[in-house]
Amino acid sequence: MRIDAVKPKDYNRFRVEPLTGTIGAEIAGVDLREFDDELIAELHDAWMSHKVLFFRDQDLTQAQHVAYGQSVGELEIHPFTRNVTEHPEIIVLESTAEKFQAAETWHSDVSFRECPPLGSVLLGRIVPPYSGDTCWANMELAYELLPDSLKDDIDGLYAIHSFVKAFGRNMSAEEREQAALDYPDQKHPIVRTHPVTGAKILYINRSFVLTIDGMTPEESRSLRYRLYEQSMLPEVQCRFRWRPGSIAQWDNRCTQHYAVPDHGGRHRRMERVTLVGDRPV
C-alpha cells in the first residue's frame, strides 16, 4: 500500500520542517513566549496536519509554559500524578539514577476518563546529551493500514478503559476503591472520529484498556493485541531527540507516544501541561 506523505504548507509566521512523511514537524522561527491570535490559529492548522509539533530553543518559565498551553485550550489537572510545582497544571516527569519515571509503553494519555485529554505540551527542562527520545505514532494511518476485513470487524466495538493497570498498582485497596468511584471505567469506541478533521482513528492502547465490551477474555485478548501492533509499525511513527528547551505538542486524540527508556540513570526532567478534551465518538 502506497502511503502519501503529508505536504507542508506555507505559513506567514513560521516554517514547517517535517520529521517524516506521515507524522511530526519542527516549527522554526517561533518564540512561544510571544504569541497572538494569528500565530495560534496558524499553529493549530499545522498541528492538525502533522499531529505533533516540535519547537527548539524555547526559554519558557513555568508561568509562560502554562500561558502558552492556555492559549491552545483549557488546561486540566492530572487525577493521579502529584504536582511538585507552584503551578497545579504542570506535571513533572523526572528520572534520575535512583528513580525512573517515563511511560515506556505505547499509549494515549488518560484514556480512562470520560473525556480524555485533547493534547499536551511537553517541555524538556533537563535532558541527557543523548538517549531518552520520545516516539509518536499516527493512529489515523494505523487505522487506514488495517485490512478492510478487520476494519469491518471492529466497526461499532467498544473498549473498556481503566486507571487500574497504570496507576492502580501502587495504590492501597482503599485508594483504589475511592479512585474507582471518582474515575469509573469508561467505554470508548475502538474507532473514534476526529472532531476537527473528521478522520477515523484507531483508539485502543495497552496502558489503559482492560478488555473489549461484549467479548470473552480469549476473544478480547486476541483482537486487542492485534490492534496494539498497529502503533509499532515504523511507517506510522516519528522519533524526536530532545535538547534543553525543546517542546513537543501532540494531539492525544489521534496519536500514541512512547518514551524510550534508554537513558540509564541520566537525569531527565520533563514538564507537561495537558488540554481538556471531549468524549470520544
Number of helices, counting only DSSP H or I runs of 4 residues or more: 7
| Helix proportion | 10-25%
Poorly predicted parts = none
* SSE order: EEHEHEEEEHHEHHEEEEHEEEE
- Overall geometry: globular
Describe the fold and architecture.
This protein is an alpha+beta fold and 281 residues long. Helix content is 23%, strand content 26%. The chain contains seven helices and 16 strands. It has helices at 37-50, 62-72, 139-144, 148-154, 164-167, 173-182, 217-228; strands at residues 15-18, 25-28, 52-55, 75-76, 91-95, 119-126, 134-138, 158-161, 186-189, 191-193, 200-202, 209-212, 237-240, 247-251, 255-259, 268-275. Strands 1, 2, 3, 4, 5, 6, 14 and 16 form an eight-stranded mixed β-sheet that branches. A hairpin with a 6-residue loop joins strand 10 (191-193) and strand 11. It starts with 14 loop residues before the first strand and ends in a 6-residue tail after the last strand. The mean pLDDT is 94.
Keywords summarizing the entry:
281 residues; eight-stranded mixed sheet; three-stranded antiparallel sheet; 7 helices
Helices and strands in order:
Blueprint: E1 15-18, E2 25-28, H1 37-50, E3 52-55, H2 62-72, E4 75-76, E5 91-95, E6 119-126, E7 134-138, H3 139-144, H4 148-154, E8 158-161, H5 164-167, H6 173-182, E9 186-189, E10 191-193, E11 200-202, E12 209-212, H7 217-228, E13 237-240, E14 247-251, E15 255-259, E16 268-275
Parallel strand pairs: 2-3
Antiparallel strand pairs: 1-2, 3-14, 4-16, 5-16, 6-14, 6-16, 7-13, 7-15, 8-9, 8-12, 10-11
